[in-house]
Amino acid sequence: MKTITLRIPSALATRLATVARxxxxxxxxxxxxxxxxxxxxxxxxxxxxxxxxxxDLVGCFEGPGGxxxxxxxxxxxxx
Length: 79
Description:
By secondary structure, the chain is mostly helical. The protein has helices spanning 10-22, 27-40, 50-54. The protein has one domain. Helix content is 41%, strand content 0%.
């Protein structure tokens, strides 16, 4: 296994230590896992909007209609 040196901001180092401690693993293992996940996604961040991520859930819940146009729902709002 190869060794690398990496400089990261203090806030990121704190988060890394927390994740490793909570997962009862090493910081190196967390970084290896993150790199594997990154490369499995072809090394690019996911594109698209939040809507793209939940598109299959849109419209699957029932609720009151007309929330954006029914003035009754807007009473007392913005005062």
